[in-house]
User: Fold this.
Amino acid sequence: MTQNRAKDNEISFLPFGNESQVITVGSLQVENRLDRVSLTGNLDITKDKLGLEKALELMGLLDGVVQSLQREDLSETIRYEPTSPIKNPFN
Amino acid sequence: MVQRIHFVIKHLRFCKSWARFTVVILSLVGGLSSSLAVDLAWDLGGKARDETRSACPEFYVQGLQPRILNPKLSQNIRLLCFSSFAVGYSPVSRTPLWSAEHLSRESLSRARGLKRVNAFHEEERLAMDERSFLTDYARSGFDRGHMSPSADQPTEQAQQDSFSLANMVPQNPNNNRNLWEGIESATRTWAKSTGDLYIITGPLFIGSSIEQLHERVMVPTHLFKIIYDPTRNAAAAYLVLNKDTDEYSVISLEELSKISGIDFLPMLNSTEQHAKIDLPSPTPHNSRSQTNANSGFSQQSERKGQDTRASTTQQERQTSSEFRQVEHLLKEIARMIN
Assistant:
């Protein structure tokens, strides 16, 4: 069932697979990055058919995230690539 | 302190007079509902006041795009029209310098329940060496912060447009998702209530040294959001540090133009630029604080008679913080003169 929900997305969400995909579930945004999947906003899962639909969609997305993480050889924590300073070109 | 700033700014203007001569090349590139206009603008010597009409005038007050006072900001600037907003993009910072929109009650009512799948994308109308890439932001720890927010967009095309990297800056994630989201939400609520507001949002790069992502995309030190109310012909701007903070300031357009080097609302005279309207407190979307009188965010600038609940200690801390910020800006301005 959850797999069916995932397939219902116009594009299949590839966790950690790109820096572009954003899927909105209710007012919750699921944003794909190479080093993370960010969930921002909020979501009411109401006790009705719409609530079930949203819950299944979110479950499908998170299932994909978990499966992707379980396939990887994970480090303890990710590391950011550091920024580097330059002389302000606008001064 | 403010008088000292004014003195320094006057001195700065006296020392550096410049003129702007703009050549506009319009190239219209097909698209279902978005058109492209690339303006090439550059500065020559001399003195002139140039209030150029935008190629997409509907997003600007009286159709006038911002007037760049600091010629270093106008280097190769690209003016891009999108379906529902307009961007002034700098290939130097590889970020927008501003993103302008016209919000109405009607456009915001259409903004609900749009497309569920979107994609951040590179701006293909910009040359490869000018645009920012998705990989620039990867593994940086920064959010791709929308300048014109996706939630403001009235159509699916406009919403997709808003995910262009030409509308993004590297933004502190907690800032983006809390204080800044609250500012965006408060702005929408106000626009729905008044029915008509012009908004210009953008980054500031203040200081002698600026951080870059992958030695390519400059990380803003501050973010601003200007709100112009046409019924009063008056404006003000939120100003926040690009950090994990709950503090914000509300400043006049005069102050913003001094800090930024851009006159964002060139149709306003100096008295109107000096005036500062009250802006609503940030209201994070659907959060508990939306129903409380106190949003949990604190305004740094003094608002006479309105902060009676703030403790003396908090006021002292805010004053001290404001003082440090003003002092920092003064030093930067002084350095620019030298």
